[in-house]
Amino acid sequence: MDCQEVRTTILESFEEPLPPWRISEVDSHLGGCPACARFAAVQQALDRRLSIGLRPPEMSLDFRSRIRQNVRRDARQLWSPALPDAVHFLACGTATLLSAVLLPFQATFTLGVGAAVTSVTYLVATAVRDALERADEPA
Amino acid sequence: MDDDVQQLLRARRHHEALERLLDLYEKKVFRMAVMMLKDAGRAEEVTQDIFLKVWRALPCYDGRAAASTWLYAIARHTCLSAVRAESYRRTLPLEEAPEPSGPALSPSDGALQQCLAKLPEDQRQAITLFYLEEKNVKDVAKLLDLPEGTVKSHLHRARRALAEMLE
Q1: Do A14 and B132 touch (CB under 8 A)?
Q2: CB B58: neighbour CB atoms within 10 A?
Q3: Count of CB atoms within 10 A of residue B55's CB?
Q4: Most buried residue among A76, B24, B67, B147 by CB atoms closer than 10 A?
Q5: Closest CA to A138 of A67, A58, A60
Q6: Quick one: B51 and B130 in the same domain?
């Protein structure tokens, strides 16, 4: 092995362990070459210094919970808060009007029943939504 | 590992898929952000943005690329945008610019930090990530979207340059 090969091998040794036969080749070269021995010592010292100096910083303890909060907030923002109620009233209104026209009952009776069913389902939906939001709150 | 994520996505279990991605990659993505932004506080904000983008994009992820490749691409683009925004911010008058919120890396070795800052950007990125990623060339190559041989070449050049600068 010449000096160039030895130095490349020394640099490679910081990335993955060398097979024993290459280590002995490098060692025998270093024994007779002070310049390469100096290169190896400097690189080993640099590796130690980098290992100590480049420690990864810690993430905040609440990092994951903040991501979850952001995701929840983002999921809510995709829909207008009023959209479920608007869809509910529109669907109930349409169904009530169609029933009033198509069913063989007095229109006032059908409209009254429709209004009552709309109100009850609105109250149930609101209660369920509130319960789900409370369950979704972080502990 | 990526298979778990793909299975969860096929089952449209997006929340669980996000949790799995966080388990697997949040630290790696954070370290890449630290390396690119050189500010741990800002890197954490950007990592939050990255996972929010990932969350929004999960329904569109088609599984053609590995989940890690897909996620790292989002992370790199978001970090680059943040770096560009930082460069723009530095051109603002001083009173309008917010203060950096925290140190980037262990500040104990000032001389080493100065020498690292003098390296060409590709070498600085490779050697910083190599040590932040517990000396794993494969991970560094994936994070930087570079062939492993190129990463090794950057590492060798960086080591030689740093040794010269520190001597």
Answers
A1: no
A2: 19
A3: 21
A4: B67
A5: A67
A6: no
Cross-chain CB nearest to B163 (options A46, A60, A71) = A46
A/B interface, count of CB pairs below 8 Å: 91
Query: What is this model's ipTM?
Result: 0.77
Distance from CA of A63 to the nearest CA of B (A): 8
Is the whole-model pTM more than 0.80? Answer: no
Q: Which residues of A touch B (CB under 8 A)?
A: 8, 11-12, 14-16, 39, 42-43, 46, 49-57, 59-60, 63-64, 66-67, 70-71, 74
Of B87, B104, B121, the domain-final residue: B104
Cβ(B71)–Cβ(B54) below 8 Å: yes
Domain ranges of chain A: 3-53, 69-136
What tens digit of pLDDT does each residue of B9-47 get? 878 888 899 999 999 999 999 999 998 888 889 999 999
Q: Say whether B159 and A56 touch across the interface (CB within 8 A).
A: no
Same domain, B89 and B145: no
Query: Which residue among A43, A50, A74 sits closest to B127, beta carbon to beta carbon?
Result: A50
- With contact defined as beta carbons under 8 Å apart, do A12 and B152 qualify? yes
Could you tell me if B81 and B122 lie in one domain?
Answer: no
Alpha carbon B19 to its chain's center = 19
* Residue B89 domain boundaries: 1-104
Residues B2 and B64 in one domain: yes
pLDDT at A23 over 50: yes
Same domain as B62, residue B17 = yes
Please tell me whether residues B30 and B67 are part of one structural domain.
yes
Residue A80 CA, distance from chain mean position: 24
